[in-house]
Amino acid sequence: MNENHVYDMIIVGGGPGGYTSALYAARAGLDTIVIEKLSAGGQMSLTWQIDNYPGFENGIDGFSLAEKMQKQAEKFGAKSEYAEVFNMDLTGKLKRVETSSGIYIGKTVVIATGANPRELGLAKEKELIGHGVAYCASCDGMFYKDKIVVVVGGGNSAVSDAALLSRIAKKVIIVHRRDTLRATKIYHDQLMKTENIEFRWNSTVKELLYGERLTGVRLKDTVTGEENIIECDGLFVSIGRKPTTDFLDNQIELDNKGYIVAGENTETSIPGVYAVGDVRTKLLRQIVTAVADGAMAVHMAEEYVEK
Ligand code: NAP
């Protein structure tokens, strides 16, 4: 790579928001590079079946959709680089992005780093990952065929994880800290009708029980304080996500949860820097809203570069 090369747009993160920015930028004739840590797709690539992205009447798996988005952007000239971003200097007219494969310079930067699963913060939680504790049902669900699993959380992710696991596991127990789900209504009825799904309302996981691997969880009733044990083979933690913004080192304004403050026009507190997809403050974090952000960021960046 040539460290003196100045890109029109550097996109950090190769999820749906990142690759849509790349598609629009490359089609607009901007010299564009996507820097992605692992593989295209971000969190989307871990999703087994996506039924709410228009254009695929039978749904599509996230990995395939990610590959298609990457290929489409590259067809118009966008480049991809697999590297980890360590540091950024975004304040000047030329932005500097330090990565494991060298330094990239760009006139504009799109941050599309998404968000990662939140942890419960329990003792031994990290050590038991891969030994009974998991954060991705579509990735690890297959290891729990005919087993008993607990899913923690009451949002859309938790219920779709529970629905997926109910087709693999013998029994799925949803543990939620309140007595109603946060998830969209359409999912409630479907789950209530599923024979091998049980609910433990007003409950939190207080402790992980284990030998060589997870053997159960100790629950605490949030109303009465009573405790009880569920024996289980797996625990899927599905309690929301944490935005990937640590590497920004306080250069950009973040909200109190760590999301980059940016409105529908994706502009951040720094001119020429845009935030797209799950990493920015927004009401609805979906693939369709991430791809819309990608198009908008390029629109704003083109105006900025022209000025
Ligand atoms: P979410 O909507 O923020 O839900 C997180 C859930 O975890 C909530 O029920 C919350 O409880 C619970 N929770 C949070 N911290 C907890 C803790 N420390 N201990 C126990 N429970 C805890 O997150 P999400 O389900 O990951 O969804 C994220 C976004 O993606 C949402 O906008 C969602 O709509 C979207 N999504 C959409 C789809 C779809 O439409 N197909 C699928 C997946 C995700 P409370 O309810 O009490 O706050």
Automatic annotation (TrEMBL):
Cofactor: FAD
Record-level GO BP terms: removal of superoxide radicals
EC number per UniProt: 1.8.1.9
UniProt-recorded Gene Ontology molecular function terms: thioredoxin-disulfide reductase (NADPH) activity
Keywords of the record: Disulfide bond, FAD, Flavoprotein, NADP, Oxidoreductase, Redox-active center
A Pfam family the protein falls into: Pyr_redox_2
Limits of the FAD/NAD(P)-binding domain: 7-294
Gene3D superfamilies hit by this protein: FAD/NAD(P)-binding domain
Chemical reaction(s) catalysed: [thioredoxin]-dithiol + NADP(+) = [thioredoxin]-disulfide + NADPH + H(+)
Cofactor note (record): Binds 1 FAD per subunit.
GO cellular component, one term: cytoplasm
EC category name: oxidoreductase
The family this protein is said to belong to: Belongs to the class-II pyridine nucleotide-disulfide oxidoreductase family.
Oligomeric form and interacting partners: Homodimer.
Protein name: Thioredoxin reductase
